[in-house]
């Protein structure tokens, strides 16, 4: 028991030493490379690696990042180890096989502490998976490229030997992609207030690794590669090449070029060589490259301010979410083609919204529908389009296409409006013509038809043609009414004359009702004799007696209950049948007793009393 207690007491200092030494060992654990972004199994999207994020999250100082991008098997990992003064055994993994060694994006866990303009800054070095390797999609390469462009303060574009057009195209696309999804992040970061936040590009360092340093400098190579190509003939392919160069204008003066010779002919043994065994020109240029990177590095600025570890990780999460969530094109399918498909979808949305309109409509209704449909189409375009520079051209093109469709809608609305109003106008014109030739002229019936036509035209005629047809309608209706009034009194006079003669015949020979005959003769004499003796034909129409006659006529001929013009013939037939029935059978059955005086033509009848 004593021995064991003595051993326990002896081991206490060791346990305490291990306990207090554990934080130091934890810090030493960060002295290695960690993945921060990894590919999903299908190598199409990216996901975060938590252990690598912890290496960044613990930093309280402003953060800057140096990222190296380039084709696979181009020596990016070896270059980073050289910049960090690390051997291949302790630094980033270097592969000599044909497959790529680095997957996703890796970070060296221990940052380099620099004093930048009096600010203590933690500089992280990022190693990226090389593009153009087998078994990956272009979209995946573009996401890696764009993410490195957004995260880095200095972006080293590592290229072997020379600058190819494909390298310029890929960089242009990555910058466009970075700007696009940085804009989406900034919109979210500003809580959807719609602020237009500019993309702060990283410093671009063209690093050309080549064995010969004579001839053109790498800066001249870069300037020549980025120079616009003259296109006097308007060649579309050259236009496309120049558009790629224009999209790199955002980099402005933030780019520089540097050349680096090969470190040694035996590339597979580079990790085993010390500085003394490497090409001395390479060692000298490498040290200059370190100084150049240190001189241009600045803290990463987002929304106008620098970020610490926590903020940098949050920024990374937001950008990665935007990259994975958004549908993006690849450099293999040009941005214009991608946006063209979106433009066509948006134009279809607008067209479908406008074709649902039940034309014709008022100009205000069509304009309101145009505004709503355009807003919907533009909203979809804003959500799905790619690239700010390309989007400006696409928005202008979408606006032009929408205007073309809108002009067709306006023309269709004008046509339908004219067609409808013309049909209503023709219907009213026919109605007025029918009222002009009524069998029994009636001012009340004409006014009722006039008001009905006018009301139906006002309610049903809509659209831009309404004003034109309203003027035509007013002229036609006014002319028709004037003509009817002019003919009305004359036709009514003739009808009353005819009616008086007919009633004379009926009262004299058929009904044999003396009062009817006398009344008919009085009316006839008043119309034909008295008026011509004392008044002119026109003055008759202003006489109170004539007004009484007209009012009586209107009451008999037309009312909401009975339209005598429509039922005149049936009514006359019924009256004729009744008279015929009375004439033939009624007098035999009931005799000829009348309460009023009638004609009695019987002479020496059988009922005469005898005198003898």
Can you summarize this structure?
With 612 residues, this protein is of the alpha/beta class.
Helix content: 55-70%
What is the average per-residue confidence, as pLDDT, rounded to a whole number? 75
Unreliably modeled segments? 1-27, 191-198, 330-334, 602-608
The helix count comes to: 18
The Rg value, from CA coordinates, equals 51 Å
What is the strand tally? 11
Report, as a whole number of angstroms, the end-to-end distance: 187 Å
Structural class: alpha/beta
Series of secondary-structure elements, N-terminal to C-terminal: HEEHEHEEEHEHEHHEHEEHHHHHHHHHH
Largest β-sheet summary = 9 strands, mixed
Shape, per Cα inertia axes: rod-shaped
Beta fraction of the residues?
Answer: 5-15%
What does the model show?
- α5 links the parallel β7 (154-160) and β8.
- By secondary structure, the chain is α/β, with parallel strands linked by helices.
- The strands form two sheets. Strands 1, 2, 3, 4, 5, 6, 7, 8 and 9 form a nine-stranded mixed beta sheet that branches. Strands 10-11 form a two-stranded antiparallel sheet.
- Mean pLDDT is 75; it is low at 1-27, 191-198, 330-334 and 602-608.
- α5 (165-189) crosses α9 and α10 (335-355) runs parallel beside α12.
- It is built from 18 helices and eleven strands.
- 58% of the residues lie in helices and 10% in strands.
């Amino acid at each position: 028991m004593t021995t064991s207690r003595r051993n326990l007491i002896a081991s206490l200092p060791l346990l305490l030493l291990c306990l207090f030494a554990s934080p130091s060992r934890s810090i030493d654990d960060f002295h290695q490379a960690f993945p921060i972004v990894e590919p999903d199994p299908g190598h199409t999207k990216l996901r975060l690696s938590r252990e690598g994020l912890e290496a960044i999250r613990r930093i309280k100082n402003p953060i800057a990042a140096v990222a190296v991008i380039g084709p696979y098997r181009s020596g990016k990992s070896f270059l980073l180890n050289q910049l960090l003064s690390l051997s291949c055994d302790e630094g980033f993994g270097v592969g000599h096989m044909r497959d790529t060694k680095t997957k996703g994006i890796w970070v060296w866990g221990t940052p380099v502490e620099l004093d930048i303009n009096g600010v203590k800054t933690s500089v992280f070095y990022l190693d990226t998976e090389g593009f153009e390797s087998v078994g990956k999609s272009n979209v995946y390469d573009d996401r890696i490229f764009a993410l490195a462009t957004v995260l880095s303060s200095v972006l080293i574009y590592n290229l072997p030997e020379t600058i190819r057009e494909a390298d310029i195209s890929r960089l242009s696309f990555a910058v466009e992609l970075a700007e696009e999804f940085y804009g989406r992040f900034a919109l979210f970061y500003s809580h959807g207030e719609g602020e237009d936040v500019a993309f702060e590009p990283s410093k671009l360092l063209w690093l050309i690794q080549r064995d010969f340093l004579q001839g053109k400098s790498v800066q001249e190579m870069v300037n020549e590669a980025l120079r616009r190509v003259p296109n006097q003939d308007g060649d579309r392919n050259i236009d496309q090449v120049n558009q790629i160069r224009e999209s790199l204008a955002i980099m402005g003066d933030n780019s520089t070029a540097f050349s680096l010779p090969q470190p040694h002919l035996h590339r597979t043994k580079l990790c085993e060589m010390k500085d003394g065994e490497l090409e001395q020109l390479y060692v000298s240029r490498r040290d200059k490259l370190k100084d150049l990177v240190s001189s241009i590095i600045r803290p990463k600025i987002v929304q106008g301010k620098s970020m610490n570890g926590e903020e940098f990780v949050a920024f990374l999460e937001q950008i990665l979410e935007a990259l994975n969530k958004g549908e993006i094109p690849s450099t293999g399918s040009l941005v214009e083609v991608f946006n063209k498909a979106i433009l066509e979808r948006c134009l279809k949305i607008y067209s479908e919204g406008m074709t649902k309109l039940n034309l014709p409509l008022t100009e205000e209704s069509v304009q309101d529908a145009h505004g709503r449909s355009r807003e919907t189409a533009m909203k979809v375009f804003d959500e799905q389009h790619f690239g700010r520079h390309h989007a400006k051209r696409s928005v202008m093109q979408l606006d032009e296409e929408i205007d073309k469709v809108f002009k067709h809608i306006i023309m269709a609305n004008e046509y339908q409006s004219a067609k409808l109003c013309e049909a209503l106008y023709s219907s009213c014109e026919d109605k007025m013509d029918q009222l002009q030739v009524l069998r029994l002229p009636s001012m009340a019936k004409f006014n009722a038809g006039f008001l009905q036509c006018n009301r139906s035209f006002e309610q049903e005629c809509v659209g831009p043609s309404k004003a034109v047809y309203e003027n035509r309608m007013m002229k036609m209706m006014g002319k028709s009414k004037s003509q009817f009034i002019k003919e009305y009194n004359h036709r009514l006079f003739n009808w009353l004359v005819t009616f008086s003669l007919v009633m004379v015949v009926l009262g004299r020979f058929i009904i044999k009702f003396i009062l009817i005959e006398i009344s008919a003769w009085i009316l006839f004499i008043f119309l034909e004799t008295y008026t011509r003796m004392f008044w002119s034909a026109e003055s008759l129409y202003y006489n109170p007696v004539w007004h009484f006659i007209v009012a009586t006529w209107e009451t008999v001929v037309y009312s909401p209950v009975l339209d005598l013009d429509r039922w005149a013939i049936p009514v006359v037939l019924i009256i004729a049948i009744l008279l015929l029935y009375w004439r033939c059978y009624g007098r035999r059955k009931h005799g000829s007793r009348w309460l009023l005086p009638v004609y009695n033509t019987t002479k020496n009848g059988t009922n005469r009393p005898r005198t003898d």
